């Protein structure tokens, strides 16, 4: 197929050139009804903000330009079917789980998955079987489960309906996914992959291989994270003999808006064309730029750079006593915004084009160095004890949780109770405490230290936590 084509974008472009008169939604009427004070910022985009008019197709029943755009994406990514997503990878993660799993089904799932995976499991009422990630001493964080842990989980739960994994992780770390996929497939279990951070892997070497190429059944990618697509623009790719394409389409139309954004969908068409037509010399220029950015960021004694499989992910690991959140705030004071700060690591994401302000970055690093000379040191957080059980299930099923009463307890008094809500550092959106999990001393101590060091939490109340009561667990029973 001609990968230079952008059928959806060009259809919208031609439609706007014809100066259409709108007696339909949306209410801004092709951008003509909009506050004058801000109109100049939105005017061009609003001309593309259409609805399902003749010639513009329908995302939920595509036949013409959207179907053509999705087929071009499937051709480039080498899939049997690619769906455009307007609800982010969250929509794709929900749909792939709902299409694969039913109430009480066992699902083998990596413990450090994005919250949307857990929400999907709760929505369908499945019973997650968690496989713990290994702690990577080289990078001082949890990465991925190993194949022996997966094998053990499959042996214990041979009737599992799916294996759900994250590849790569937020920091660009990959693992031997192909062997895990082959293991699951040998038991006729489909493998669902959250590849939110890997849309650019289809560019080929030196990028890691995509989970699509490695044989996964369903792969969800956030186009907007690494490619030039608008925020929330994502893809769901299928290459499965086990999961029904019709079921996935059914749940996508349930989960996503019935009025999807045309500018967003057009950006997915554009992002695919951008990736498909990137020449090798452009990739070489990007890699040269990455080296220059790393060189600028290396001019310090307060952190070191951690290598990643994805060359576009640049992680700074702080020296003992320095917090990544504090360093992030110093960079932000100079209008330089990293992607993510954990307690000890700061993530910078390089784009798919050369970075042009290296000198400004060097000056910022020098300023941060000067500020850190007078910054108080903090305690080091030890997270190695978070995932002690290699294969584990929730203390309660989602069906049981729906029937129970809850109450709010002060955090320090909640140890031994079962959490009725998740506590999620965000980003990256991976739960420290899961709903349905027994709260441990390690959980609470880690939570207090993370909060003290400025890590943001998606947890509505800062001093207490919602727990299930009267469930037969001994009150105050302390976890490890």
UniProtKB/TrEMBL annotation:
Instruction: For this UniProt record, give its keywords in alphabetical order, as a comma-separated list.
Output: Decarboxylase, Lyase, Pyridoxal phosphate
Does the keyword field hold Lyase?
A: yes
Classify the source by domain of life.
Answer: Bacteria
- Cofactor(s) it depends on: pyridoxal 5'-phosphate
Q: Which SUPFAM superfamilies match?
A: Ornithine decarboxylase C-terminal domain, PLP-dependent transferases
What family is it from?
A: Belongs to the Orn/Lys/Arg decarboxylase class-I family.
**Protein name stated in the entry:** Arginine decarboxylase
């Amino acid at each position: 197929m001609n990968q230079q084509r952008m059928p959806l974008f060009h259809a919208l472009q031609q439609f706007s050139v014809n100066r259409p008169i709108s007696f339909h939604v949306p209410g801004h009427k092709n951008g003509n009804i909009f506050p004058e004070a801000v109109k100049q910022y939105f005017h061009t985009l609003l001309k593309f903000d259409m609805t399902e008019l003749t010639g513009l197709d329908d995302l939920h029943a595509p036949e013409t330009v959207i179907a053509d755009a999705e087929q071009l994406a499937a051709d480039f990514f080498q899939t049997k079917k690619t769906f455009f997503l307007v609800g982010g990878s969250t929509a794709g993660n929900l749909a792939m789980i709902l299409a694969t799993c039913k109430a009480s089904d066992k699902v083998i799932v990596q413990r450090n998955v994005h919250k949307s995976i857990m929400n999907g499991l709760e929505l369908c009422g499945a019973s997650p079987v968690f496989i713990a990630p290994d702690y990577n001493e080289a990078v001082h964080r949890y990465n991925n489960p190993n194949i022996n842990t997966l094998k053990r989980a499959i042996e214990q739960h041979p009737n599992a309906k799916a294996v759900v994994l994250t590849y790569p992780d937020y920091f660009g770390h990959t693992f031997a996914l192909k062997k895990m996929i082959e293991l699951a497939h040998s038991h006729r279990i489909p493998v669902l992959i959250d590849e939110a951070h890997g849309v650019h892997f289809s560019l080929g070497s030196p990028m890691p291989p995509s989970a699509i190429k490695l044989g996964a059944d369903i792969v969800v990618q956030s186009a907007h994270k690494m490619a030039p697509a608008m925020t929330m623009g994502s893809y769901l790719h299928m290459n499965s003999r086990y999961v029904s394409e019709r079921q996935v389409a059914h749940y996508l139309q349930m989960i996503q808006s019935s009025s999807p954004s045309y500018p967003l969908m057009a950006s997915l068409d554009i992002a695919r064309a951008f990736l498909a037509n990137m020449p090798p010399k452009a990739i070489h220029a990007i890699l040269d730029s990455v080296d220059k950015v790393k060189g600028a960021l290396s001019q310090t004694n307060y952190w070191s750079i951690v290598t990643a499989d994805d060359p576009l992910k640049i992680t700074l690991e702080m020296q003992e006593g320095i917090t990544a959140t504090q360093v992030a705030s110093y960079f932000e004071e100079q209008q330089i915004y990293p992607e993510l700060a954990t307690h000890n690591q700061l993530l910078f994401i390089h784009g798919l084009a050369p970075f042009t302000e290296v000198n400004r970055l060097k000056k910022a690093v020098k300023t941060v160095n000067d500020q850190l000379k007078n910054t108080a040191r903090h305690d080091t957080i030890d997270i190695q004890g978070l995932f002690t059980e290699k294969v584990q299930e929730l203390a309660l099923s989602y069906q049981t949780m729906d029937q129970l009463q809850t109450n709010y307890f002060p955090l320090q008094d909640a140890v031994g109770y079962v959490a009725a809500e998740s506590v999620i550092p965000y980003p990256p959106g991976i739960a420290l405490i899961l709903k349905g999990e027994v709260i441990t001393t390690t959980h609470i101590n880690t939570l207090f230290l993370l909060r003290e060091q400025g890590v943001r939490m998606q947890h509505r109340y800062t001093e207490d936590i919602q727990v299930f009561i009267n469930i037969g667990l001994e009150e105050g029973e302390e976890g490890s």
